[in-house]
Specification:
By secondary structure, this protein is of the alpha/beta class. It folds into 2 domains: 132 residues, Aspartate Aminotransferase, domain 1 (Alpha-Beta Complex), CATH 3.90.1150.10; 223 residues, 3-Layer(aba) Sandwich (Aspartate Aminotransferase, domain 2), CATH 3.40.640.10. It is 38% helix and 15% strand. The protein has 13 helices and 12 strands. α2 runs antiparallel to α10, α4 runs parallel beside α5 and α4 crosses α9. The protein starts with 18 loop residues before the first helix and ends with a helix.
């Protein structure tokens, strides 16, 4: 067999280890997973009820157009249904966008480090990733603008930034977008938007409405707690949606996912409960880490970077030592942030458990 040449440049995505695997391997009674930026809360009870109500129709294909969900999202954001795209998680949308925009010789600009999938979808298309170092822990828009040329087809920009959790004001992103060529797509990835506490948190919507080359991505995986059903969505021009429809697989959003996301969207007023939990958890971790003398990067998301070079074990060993104690975190080195680990903000009890285990590694 002969693979396409791009395959040699790709590495598989490595996800966080499942709780049950860690518990079994280390013989633990309690394991807390704080590695994958998941919500610590399950879906709303009303969403679970809708999911179970659909079990007896699983012998039928789902609505291939996801008409009800797209109509609801269009109503939520005051756009037309043909401006709404849906994916099996935002990652699938990134794949489709790479298929319609990228080819050998084209370039995609994004920060370094950032969400690993941007690099993978670019390389898979035989296009060239142009990686722009962060300014500290924040997207460097001036340097990103300087990296754009007539071969640039996509700029991937995540806000809040993953993996650092930092946030750029809407005015700065708008100024950046204004300088991009009209034929360059700005993919504004706002997977963690609902956690942002800044007053301009919805500035990306205004930017999308004012610029046909802006594609805004969001997801039901995070604050809605639907990671396991994989529903990402985007707002884009009708021309982008039409192109994506030509490359996406049929029935890509399954029946349970469509029903769950539709119901979750109707419970928008309940999200403040979850924002408040995240806010309280963030303050709890700031305080606890400060008492332990452990540094961190302030965040506008549901995860944060925590320094691990101040512990009693080498930084490279710290994630494994926490794993042995029942806390699953993400090694920052694998994300381009050596000397740090990325930690999801959990419930108060989960955060306390993390702080307790970190205290053991400070002794």
């Amino acid at each position: 067999m002969k693979f396409i040449p791009q395959i040699k440049n790709l590495t598989p995505y490595v996800a966080g280890t499942p709780i049950e695997v860690v518990a079994r391997e280390y013989g633990l009674d309690r394991v807390v997973k704080l590695a994958s930026n998941e919500s610590p809360l399950p879906p709303f009870p009303e969403v679970l009820d809708v999911i179970t109500s659909k079990f007896d129709s699983l012998n039928r294909y789902p609505d291939a157009e996801a008409r009800d969900l797209r109509a609801a999202l269009a109503g939520r954001y005051t756009v037309e249904p043909d401006q709404v795209i849906l994916g099996n998680g935002s990652c699938e949308l990134l794949i489709w966008l790479s298929l319609i925009f990228l080819e050998p010789g084209a370039e995609a600009v994004f920060s370094d480090p950032t969400f690993l999938v941007y690099d993978e979808v670019t390389l898979a298309r035989g296009a060239t990733p142009v990686k722009v170092p962060l300014d500290g822990f924040t997207n460097d828009l001036n340097s990103m603008a300087a990296a754009v040329n007539d071969r640039t087809r996509i700029v991937f920009l995540t806000n809040p930034h993953n993996p650092t959790g930092t946030y750029l004001p809407a005015t700065e992103i708008a100024a950046f977008a204004a300088g991009l060529p009209a034929d360059c797509a700005l993919v504004l990835d706002e997977a963690y938007n609902e956690y942002v506490e800044e007053p301009d948190a919805q500035g990306g919507l205004a930017l999308f409405r004012a610029n046909p080359n802006v594609i805004l991505l969001r997801t039901f995986s995070k604050i809605y707690g639907l990671c396991g059903l994989r529903v990402g969505y985007g707002l884009c021009s009708p021309q982008v949606k039409e192109a994506i429809d030509k490359v996406r697989q049929p029935f890509n959003i399954n029946t349970l996912a469509q029903a769950a996301a539709l119901k979750a969207l109707s419970l928008e007023d309940r999200l403040e409960e979850r924002r408040a939990l995240n806010r309280e958890g963030r303050v709890q971790l700031y305080s606890g880490l400060g008492e332990l003398g452990i540094g961190y990067i302030e965040t506008q998301s549901n995860f944060m970077l925590v320094e691990i070079d101040q512990l009693s074990v080498p930084a490279a060993n710290a994630p494994v030592e926490l794993l042995r104690r029942g806390v699953i975190v993400r090694d920052g080195a694998a994300l381009g942030c050596p000397g740090y680990m990325r930690v999801s903000i959990g419930t108060a009890g989960e955060n306390d458990f993390l702080l307790e285990k970190l205290a053991e590694l400070k002794n």
